[in-house]
Design a protein that fits this description.
This protein is α/β, with parallel strands linked by helices. It has two domains: 6-172, Aldehyde Dehydrogenase, Chain A, domain 1; 174-313, 3-Layer(aba) Sandwich (Aldehyde Dehydrogenase, Chain A, domain 2). It contains twelve helices and twelve strands. A seven-stranded mixed sheet has the order 8-9-10-7-6-11-12, with helices on both faces. A five-stranded parallel sheet has the order 3-2-1-4-5, with helices on both faces. α1 (6-21) runs antiparallel to α3 (43-56) and α1 crosses α6 (113-126). The two termini are 15 Å apart. The relative contact order is 0.13.
Length: 340
């Protein structure tokens, strides 16, 4: 692999980004057929994910990302257990492994198999040398390190099976939004992207609002009204109906705009079609709560000036990570470089 330079890889990833920003007819067919394997992967949501990846893989950001990474002195085999909650959510881990000259042994999620393989095939077409560095498997074995992503339940199994080798094991996380009450209608409409993109299934989706005491939710509901069509998705609608019935039977306090339920709750992770909210007196209290829960949070959406270790983004940006935004804040390139 010594003749496979960093510049070669940057160029290949950049060309893949060009392709994803403007896919051909064959790949568009893959996009449109994804919902046959996963009902959440509608053409609109898959296209959104593909475009976001295309924007992530731009030449300038790739150069900056890989400028200082040390290529491994030996080739390691990295086992990857990929999530499938969002379209192509595991691709970043694959690119990290390939960037550092290692081999990727991939166990894809059954929920996101076809899309991943289609993107990898396009990468192999652009740069054939990558093909020898990737293997798709049903069961992982013979690996030097592991990167595994799953739920809080599956993470315990990952720790048991993979704890003997160097590893990154990710659990479920969520995003929250901290509102000041001074947000414009446009900002709250953008917040709708953070809430509803990919039907709220991602670890970067906002699942809870922190709002100042006495906050009027009418303006919030008016600002997100354009997302009403989400209720037409049968699986989302089923979750909405189920949670609404539970709240009504249990007489749980909640607000309802016909496609989203708002309920006061101190928990961070809300069910699908539900958004938790919690009032605060001052931002210092929120900072303390975020500090106490930082290992459960992926990102904060706010224009407030918060002093926390959790990354903050602007409204509408939670599902548009950059190439150097690492899941759980763990630098994957540094982990791979540490293997030698």
């Amino acid at each position: 692999m010594s003749d496979f330079s960093k510049e070669d890889k940057i160029m290949a990833f950049s060309l893949l980004g060009d392709f994803l920003r403007k896919p051909n007819a064959a790949f568009n067919q893959v996009i449109h057929s994804a919902q046959n394997y996963n009902a959440w992967f509608t053409p609109a949501e898959v296209s959104k994910a593909v475009a976001a990846l295309g924007n992530m893989l731009n030449h300038t950001d790739l150069q900056n990302w890989l400028a200082t990474y040390p290529e491994n002195s030996k080739v390691n085999t990295i086992g990857l257990v990929l999530a499938g909650n969002l379209p192509l959510v595991g691709l970043h881990d694959v690119l990290c492994v390939l960037s550092t000259g290692n081999k990727a042994v991939i166990k894809p999620s059954s929920q996101d198999n076809q899309l991943l393989i289609a993107v990898l095939n396009q990468l192999f077409y652009i740069e054939p040398r990558f093909k020898a560095m990737v293997k798709i498997v049903l069961k992982l074995d013979n690996f030097d390190a592991i990167i595994a992503t799953g739920s809080n339940n599956t993470s315990r199994y990952f720790e048991y099976y993979f704890g003997r080798v160097p590893h990154i094991i990710r659990k479920a996380r969520n995003a929250v939004a901290v509102l000041t009450g001074n947000e414009t209608c446009h900002e709250l409409q953008l917040l709708g992207e953070d809430i509803f993109s990919y039907y709220g299934l991602g670890c970067r989706n906002v699942s809870k609002l922190f709002v100042p005491k006495g906050y009027d939710f009418n303006f919030f509901f008016e600002s997100i009204e354009s997302y009403n069509p989400i209720i037409n998705h049968h699986k989302y609608h089923n979750n909405y109906d189920y949670n609404k019935s539970i709240y009504l039977v249990n007489k749980t306090p909640h607000l309802d705009n016909g496609f989203l339920l708002l309920s006061p709750n101190e928990a961070l992770c809300s069910p699908l079609a539900v958004l938790y909210h919690q009032s605060y007196n001052n931002l210092a209290d929120i900072e303390k709560q975020i500090m106490a829960n930082q290992n459960s949070l992926q990102v904060i959406v706010s224009h407030a000036n918060l002093n926390t270790p959790v990354a903050a983004v602007n409204f509408g940006e939670s599902q548009k990570p950059k190439i150097n935004d690492y899941a759980d804040g763990v630098n994957t390139l540094q982990f791979l470089a540490s293997l030698g």
